[in-house]
Design a protein that fits this description.
131 residues; 24% strand
């Protein structure tokens, strides 16, 4: 919801609270204490839902799909630079230093990577076999 929507809800709630307070002062005090509690519950629920729907960013699952660059040649093993860190990596096909790579799996502290643009890399490999 937008900020304007929240403002409208607060204004309507305050108007209802004033009307109830005039009719029954005790009910107004109960609602005055209940409204902040309900707002807090709604806020916590929204935060929990958002964290549940967010993409995993830690552990093995958080690494898969990340892109970086080969720091050394991967033939088949070498090092890659991903998210500001150097990692040991293994690739099925040779990757030259400086080329972009994408993480496809994690084996302990070794990343399994492939070319970030896999189709283009395969075409270059096929062309080099023909030359």
């Amino acid at each position: 919801m937008k900020l304007l929507d929240y403002r409208v809800i607060v204004v309507v709630a305050l108007l209802l609270l004033m009307k109830i307070t005039v009719l029954n002062p005790r009910a107004g005090l109960i609602l005055l204490g209940l409204i902040p509690v309900l707002l807090l519950i709604a806020l916590l629920f929204r935060m929990a839902l958002r964290s549940h729907l967010d993409r995993v960013t830690t552990g093995e699952a958080g690494m898969i799909g990340m892109t970086g660059r080969a720091d050394t040649e991967l033939a088949p093993e070498g090092t890659v630079f991903i998210r500001g860190e150097l990692w040991r990596a293994r690739a099925r096909i040779r990757v030259a230093a400086g080329e972009s790579v994408r993480v496809t799996g994690v084996d302990g502290l070794t990343l399994e990577v492939e070319h970030a643009d896999k189709d283009k890399a395969m075409m270059n490999r096929r062309a080099s076999f023909l030359d």
